[in-house]
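Before surveying the methods themselves, let us examine one representative protein, written as a sequence plus integers encoding its fold.
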Amino acid sequence: MAGFFAGLRYSLSGFGLLGRPGIRIYVLIPLLVNSVLFTLTIVYGTSRFSRLLDQLITHWAWLEWVTWLLWPLFLLLMLGFVFFCFSMLANLIAAPFNGRLATAVEQELTGAPNPESAASVGVIAETINAVRSEAEKIRYFLLRGVPLLVLFLIPVIQLAAPLIWFIYAAWMIALEYLEIPLGNRGMLFPQVRTLAKANRNIVLGYGTGILLLTMMPGVNLMVMPIAVSGATKMALERLSGNNKS
């Protein structure tokens, strides 16, 4: 459990890094991207679902009593969408800036430039690499995430489905952000997964912390730069060697 709690601390460490002079310049654009996409996604999704419920109740008034069950289900599905589709889209758009943010964090922590960082890569080339990476992550998610949704339909097992989904969401969001600093070092998504599995506890703790931060109003708009900074610090201090947590 020590590794898990260490991961939780790394998820919070980004707060203390964002205000440093060499880092904050790379925070603004990812923050704006995250804020706009998150707001539009939640507002649009909630309004559409509310309108759908109103239409259903208009035609079948007896359904009104189950709305208290449908809203939690909607929030759960929205949670999955935000943590995967939204997160991937936001990171794809902000990829050039997130790579440079990770580089700036590493330079701030080590005091030395990283010659293999994203700063030396052209924006177009970096964006192409990001598209390929996101496609691989979407494939990875669909092959595992879709079968997990079936658990919600299986009696008895469906009681544990939300917890299983939460753990999987924490794992995926950890991979999403860890790939940014590790990608600066030339690692591809399959290699990031392998390294994460070798350090499962600390990675899962980090992902859990980031997942909880996304649930906090206001804080969720700053999750992207916080997560990138925390992932960079964790990768530098705990995932650069052969130590396993």
Notes: The chain is about 75% helix and 0% strand. Residues 115-120 have pLDDT under 50 and may be disordered.
